[in-house]
Amino acid sequence: MKTFRQFVLIFAIFFASGEAVVRLDRQFLFFHGSQFVEISNDARRSVELEAVEHGRLTISANDLRIMVLGDSKFYGPGVEFDKIFSQQLKAMLAQDNRLRHDKVLVLDLSRGGYNTLMNRLTYFEYVDQFKPQVVILGNNYEDVYGNQDVPEAISNSHLSPHEQTSRVFAQRPTDNIPLFQRVRDQLYHSSLLEFIMSGLNLELKLHGVIVPGSVFHHLIYKSHREDYPGWIKAQRHLRDMIADCRQRGIALIVYSVPELNMLDNYAPYEMVDRKLAAFFATYAVPYISGVQPFRGMTSNELALSRYDGHANDRGHYLMARQVYASLAPTLQREYAAQISPAGCRSEGWRSLGSALQ
Amino acid sequence: MLFNSWQFLVFFPLVVAAYFLLPHRLRWMLLLGASYYFYMCWKPEYALLLMFSTVIDYYAGLQMGKATSARKRKLYLGVSLSSNLGILFLFKYFNFLNASARAVFDQFNLCYNVPMFELLLPVGISFYTFQTLSYSIDVYRGRLAPEKHLGMFALYVTFFPQLVAGPIERCTNLLPQFHRVHGVDRQRMLDGLKLMLWGFFKKIVIADRLAVYVNQAYNNPAGASGADLLVATYFFAFQIYCDFSGYSDIAIGAARVMGFELMENFRRPYLSQSIAEFWQRWHISLSTWFKDYLYIPLGGNRVAQWRWLCNLFIVFLVSGLWHGANWTFVVWGALHGFYLVFSIWTDNARRWLWQVARLDRLAGVVRVTRILLTFHLVLFAWIFFRANHLADAFLIITKIVPAVAGVFRFGLVPVVSLIETRALLLMLVLIAGMSLYERYQSARGARLGHRYARVAFASVLFWVILVWGAFNNQQFIYFQF
Question: Of B209, B452, B460, which is closest to A21 when you measure between CB atoms?
Answer without folding.
Answer: B460
